[in-house]
Each structure stands twice: as C-alpha cells, then as structure tokens.
Amino acid sequence: MLEKLTPEQIKDCTKSELNVLCDEIRAIIFDTVTKCGGHLASNLGAVESTVAMFYVFDFPNDKVIFDVGHQCYPYKLLSGRLERFSTLRQSGGISGFPKRTESVYDAYDTGHAGTSVSAAIGLAKARDLLNEERYVIAYIGDGSFNNGLIYEALSSLKILNTKILIVLNDNGMSISPTVGGMYDIISQIKENGRSENIKLLESFGLTYIGVKNGNDLDEMLDAMAEAKEKLDGNSVLLHIVTKKGKGYEFSEEHPTDTHGVPPVGSAKQKEYSEVLGETLCNLAEKDEKITVVSAAMKEALGLSDFFKNYPERAFDVGICEENASVLCVSMAAGGLKPYYAIYSTFLQRAFDEIIHDVCAQDMPVTFCIDRAGISGADGETHQGVFDLSYLSLIPNLTIATPKDTEELTKLLQFSATYPHPLAIRYPRAGKVLFAGDGKEISLGKWEYLHQSADKNAKVTVLAAGERCLIIAMKILQNLQAQGLDFDVVNARFIKPLDEELLKGLQSKHVVTLEDNMLLGGFGSMVCTWLNARDKDCKVKNFAYRDEFIPQGSIAELQQEFGVNCKEIEEYIQSVLV
C-alpha cells in the first residue's frame, strides 16, 4: 500500500486502510533496522501518531521537528523515502535522523535532545513575521522533556507571542528508563489526572490535551484534529502515551536493548564500556568515596552492575549533561570521587561547565568518554571527533586515551588517586591488542611499542588510541616486509605530552595519528611544543579534515576523511627510501 501512496493521498484513506498502513510501516522499519541497524523500539512506538499527523496536517507546508530524531523513521517512510529506506544509515544513503538536505519534508536537523521546542518557536516566529500560513509541531519524547533547554524555550514561549503544537510522546524511556522530577509530574497526570500538574504545564502558555493513547489510531486522529483546532487560540501540549517497541514482543519487553540495534550478523566485540563498568565496581569495593553519574545512559555505558551493586553511589540525572557535570564537581567539593560516563558527542553540551566548574576549580572529576572518534552510522551529530580539540585548550585538565581495553583498566586505576580533572576517551569496541611494558601508568608518560633495530629511526610515529595504533602497526608490518623500519609510540597521554620522550627524539620526521579533527587536536599540540623548542624535525599530522563527517562505516570514513592507511603508508615510505 505504501509503495503507491503519496503523502497527499493519506488524507483520502479510510480508517481501515490507515490501520493497514500502520502495520506495513511497522514491518518495514523492523525489517530494515535489523538489516541496517538503527533505532528500533522508539520508531515502532511512533507509527500511529505519525500517520495521524499526516492525515490532519499538510506537510511539507506545515513543519514538524522531531526532538533527537529517534522517532522519525515512520515520517521518512510517509514522506516519499520508501525506495531509499533500505539505505538507512549507510554511506551515501538516508540518515537515521532528520536532515534538511535530504528532503523538503525535514524542517530542522536534530540528533541531540532538547532542541525541538526552541526550533519550533523559531520557525513559528519566521512564519508570523513573513505572514505565512502553517502549523509548527515539536514532537518530543518524555526523556528529552527533562532537558533544561526545553524549559528555557517554554519560558520564552509567552514572551515571543507565537503558537506551536508540542506532541509529548510519553513511553517511559529515553535510552534508559526516564527519571526526574518533571517525569514524575507527567506520570501523576497520566495516573490520576492531577489538575495542579496540568496547571503547571499550562502556566507556560499551553493548552493541555491528554492523556491520549498514542498507539490507537482512532484516538490519534481525533486528538490531532482537536489540537489543530485549539491552535487557533493558543499553543497546545498534546500528551500521548505509546509503547516503545510496539508490535514486536521482544522489543516491547526489552526497550532498552532494542533502542539502538546493530545489523544482524555484526561481530560482537567486548566494548570499552564493559571494562569501565567492571573496573569501577572493583574500585568502588575498595573506596567508598567513588560515585558514578550518568545522563540517561547507564546501560549503554556499562554501568548497570554499578547501579545494582552501589545504588546509593550511582546517579542517573536524565538527559541533563550540564547538570551532571556540576553535580560531579559539587560531590568532589564535598569529598567524593565522582566518575562521569558519557558519549563524546554529548559531552560537548557541558563545555562551559567543564571549563568554569570542573577545571577552574581543579576538581578531581574523571570523565569517561565513550564513543570517542568516528562513531559511524549515526552521522554528523554523533561523531565523537571534537573532544581532543575542545578539551586540550582547558587548563588543569589531563587527557588520556588507552591503547586497548587492558590499558583502560590501568588508566582507571591511575585515576582513583589522581587529585585533578581527568578525561579518558575511547571508542566503542575494543580488544586487548598490545603487550604492555608491565609498568604502572605514570602521568604524561608514553611508551614505545616498537623501536627500530639501530635505535636511530628516521621516522617516529606518535599514535593516540587503539585505532591509530592498529594503523601504525599494520603499516610497520607492511614496510618491514620491504626492509624498512620506524618507531611507534603509544601516546597514551594527550595532555600533558611526554616532554622527556619528545626532547630525546632523534628522528628527522615525526608523524602523528589521531581519531579526532586535525584542528586543535593531538597533532597540533605536538607541533606547538616542537616549534617552541626549535626542534630540528619535520612533523606530519594525520587527522580528520575540517568537515562534518556523515554516516558510514568507521573504516570507510577514516579512509575518506583523512586517517587514510594507504596515504599514511605512502608518506612514511617516501621519507624512508
């Protein structure tokens, strides 16, 4: 049915046909995501409400912004992207998130939580000032509704004197189960219709409609029509309740496990997050001051056992990355030893707090930065390729990147007694790859993974992190087969640099490798240090170009955007022969 249906023809469908359409959309999403990977449970729950929006509103003239974008797959299918949907999250295919460059139906790019209401207000003001006729909708989950940016936006809604529709999709989940005071208010409305809580929401200038069954198509059609009518008088909050994973029993029963799923047949590797969780539990057993903070991602970050074993020392604050940072600082000020586990791409949201609260006060907060470097198929909004650049400029902050999962354990052990701010960054999947020197981690000290036989190598490669060290060792193997040799250094500390090793370098050529942007990263720091000391060597940096990196496999994107194994090998070969 969907194959022959244009977005405009949805309005001509009978209710029976719309129910068939919902089943078809759900089946396509399930089949595609299990092949391509992506966000499954959240999209399965959003089908009926999205079909109802298309039936009642007029897209693309009307505009909808999906907060984060984890619920946009039904919308993509209904807006003419069925033929391309099999390319979901693939290189050159359609994005797993809304993208303005992909379709006129996508009004605003999203990928991080909390932006939808501000964006909807901005689009509505543009409509008002240009005397246009259209409705503007923010479609937001209850997890995102905890984010502080939402309340900044709501606080300005009356002042800016415009009208928007907020569809609050309440499924009790973000990635982890939803927590927080605002969610308690929403839950009380859902359970007993507490009038004082409704008045609180309406105090922002909203007309409240709810609670509606978001997976009942008839109820959704009526609710969307009611909301559209009431928009003539005021902004509206439509509160719907949906089942995350709707239509597939395993997904309904395991919404956290099926929030984001890998393609079928993907190789299972031990993740750095597992090592993090195991090591923090071991450290906490010996040190009662250790605490852990998460921003709605405790399962994804390997912290489930810590939350189970030490519930009084584990804190999930919801999608509130800035709040989590200040919470860590204040706990440290009170004598605790906090660990803040977070994805690289989400840590960006707490940049000011890292500078002003953590580092300016020189507090012993340890940031455990997961998904650092290229993350792959989620595209521009989720690539963790900026953290070395935005963290390296901050005084008092030490930055480390382990060579493998075993070294992560050592760095965490080092962190337990380290009295200053520390950031440890690592990718998702990892292994124990390199034999260590058996020594304890020392601040700012690197290690040689290979030194050429004559101890006077013409080239020294300084590689930061597992991925770059793998590249360096592969190139070494290839060139050794040709009778060529060079030194490889595990630059496990980005800041401070190993000044003693750098001073002792005899190589005429230094090559840096990093899983980060070129500008402001590890290579930049090495160049600055060597130039300041008039070191007689030529430095070549390999990192990602000054571009936003789209979706694709990690290997494809590394090759395409500047950490190119072939190019690096050719450069090293050219200076060795």
3D structure, described in words:
The chain is α/β, with parallel strands linked by helices. The protein folds into three domains: 2-261, Rossmann fold (3-Layer(aba) Sandwich); 272-425, Thiamin diphosphate (ThDP)-binding fold, Pyr/PP domains (Rossmann fold); 449-576, Rossmann fold (3-Layer(aba) Sandwich), CATH 3.40.50.920. Helices cover 39% and strands 16% of the residues. A seven-stranded mixed β-sheet has the order 9-8-10-11-13-12-17, with helices on both faces. The chain has a five-stranded parallel β-sheet with strand order 2-3-4-6-5, with helices on both faces. Helix 17 links the parallel strand 12 (398-400) and strand 13 (422-425). It is globular, with a radius of gyration of 26 Å. The protein starts with 14 loop residues before the first helix and ends with a helix. The model has no long low-confidence stretch (mean pLDDT 93).
